[in-house]
Amino acid sequence: MKIILLKDVENLGDEGDVKTVTDGYGRNYLLPRGFATLFSKHGLTLIEQRKAKIEARREEKRQAALGLKEKLQGVNLLISMPAGDNGKLFGAVTNGVIADQLAQTHGVTIDKRHISIHGNAIKMVGIYEVKIRLLDREHATVKVEVKALEA
Kind and range of the H or E element at 71? Predict the structure, then answer.
């Protein structure tokens, strides 16, 4: 099924893109939610007319992502968790914990699905680098220091 995206869809494309998707995905998800319309000459001309607005929104998103990247680039997070004598945490530092910590300490709201931890979770005390995806090709790296809670 050939479609024209009306909104940005993660892992598929941006507004105005022409994509080929499976019939079920298009018919059951994209079309009913208003994310896409069927490919046609009329739909293509409507997208061409809105091309300037679409490009302006893309550039605005890119500039916002670059500003956020600049803000996040120098961030060092300190997370205290209960740990044993050998440095192994009682629990783990996950994407959600890092997203919450960023929101509380720096006022930056990041979707936890955009945070990438090597090995999916931090389970030991130490210093780690965590990647945050801002846009398709824009990433920021944040240092996370995990310390043992002192009793």
Answer: helix 51-73
The residue ranges of every structural domain in the chain are 2-49, 68-148
> What are residue 64's phi and psi, to 5 degrees?
-65, -40
Contacts 24+ apart (CB under 8 A), 107-112: 108/68, 108/71, 108/72
Helix (H) or strand (E) holding 10, with range, is none
The dotted CATH code for 2-49 is 3.40.5.10
CATH of 68-148, one of 3.90.400.10, 3.10.430.100, 3.30.830.10, 3.30.200.20: 3.10.430.100
Q: DSSP label at 29?
A: I
Which tens digits make up the pLDDT trace of 57-82?
888 888 888 888 888 888 888 989 89
- Averaged pLDDT for residues 19-34: 93
In the sheet that holds 18-20, the strands lie side by side as 18-20, 2-5, 36-38
Burial (CB count within 10 angstroms: exposed 0-12, middle 13-18, buried 19+), residue 63: exposed
Q: What angle do CA 139, 118, 123 make, to 5 degrees?
A: 130
